[in-house]
Specification:
Layout: E1 2-6, H1 11-22, E2 26-31, H2 37-42, E3 46-49, H3 57-64, E4 69-72, H4 82-103, E5 107-111, H5 126-143, E6 148-154, E7 156-158, E8 165-169, E9 176-178, H6 179-190, E10 198-204, E11 207-208, H7 209-214
Parallel strand pairs: 1-2, 1-4, 2-3, 4-5, 5-6, 6-10, 7-9
Antiparallel strand pairs: 8-10, 8-11
Helix pairs in contact: 1-6, 3-4, 4-5
Organism: Amycolatopsis ultiminotia
Protein name: NAD(P)H-binding protein
Pfam family, one: NAD_binding_10
């Protein structure tokens, strides 16, 4: 399976690329900084140097041609301002989905954010509120498309080692989850086309990933 991943140098993406490569799939990570390419090569991923904030749908579609699935795992990241929340977390996601449609890549998994269904909750930091608004807009755009999409909203991300024990549901409640487990769930979602059309939350829990997805 050839899987193109936007935000290929992110921590979740690197874990996913490693998992894909270990089972002899073909992970392709899109990065905008050439200094990041060796990190992807080290985990067995092919790299494509492309800035989604400055690219166009034709250029991105060329990268996606021949892929079996697309994963949007990009984000402006901590420390970025309101403007980049929009240009990355919303606009780049929309562009990537546009390109997937043009390239004929139907399976599309998007990393969202818990709280994206209520971005205007009182008391939020303005930049974080803008982030949630961007995530919500990206999700609503994706839901309108004729793609086999799944949206995964993980809880608070940690760098602890993955346990493989999770809770996955439309509503899980707020809790944390290791990035390694998020990547493992993304891999399982790629293998589970029956999750298309679902928006799922993810936190650490008691079930194996296989059991958690089967229960859906």
């Amino acid at each position: 399976m050839r899987v193109v991943i936007a935000g290929g140098h992110g921590q979740i993406a690197l874990h996913l690329e490693k998992l894909l490569a270990q089972r002899h799939d073909e992970p392709v990570g899109i990065v905008r900084n050439q200094d990041h390419e060796p990190d992807l090569t080290a985990v067995g991923a092919e790299t494509v140097l492309l800035d989604l904030e400055k690219s166009d749908v034709d250029s991105v579609a060329k990268v996606l041609e021949g892929a079996d699935a697309a994963v949007f795992a990009a984000g402006a990241g901590p420390g970025s301002g309101e403007a980049r929340k929009d240009t990355v977390d919303r606009a780049a996601a929309v562009l990537f989905a546009d390109a997937a449609g043009r390239a004929g890549v139907r399976r599309f998994v998007q990393v969202g954010s818990m709280g994206a269904d209520n971005p205007d909750a009182p008391g939020l930091d303005p930049v974080f509120a803008k982030y949630l608004q961007a995530k919500q807009a990206a999700e609503e755009d994706l839901k309108s498309r004729d793609l086999e999409w799944t949206i995964l909203r993980p809880g608070a991300l940690t760098n602890e080692s993955g346990t493989g024990r999770v809770k996955i549901a439309e509503k899980t409640g707020r809790a944390s989850v290791p990035r390694e487990d998020v990547a493992a769930v993304l891999l399982a979602l790629l293998d589970t086309p029956a999750t298309a059309g679902r928006t799922l939350e993810l936190i650490s829990g008691d079930d194996s990933i296989e059991d958690a997805l089967s229960a859906l």
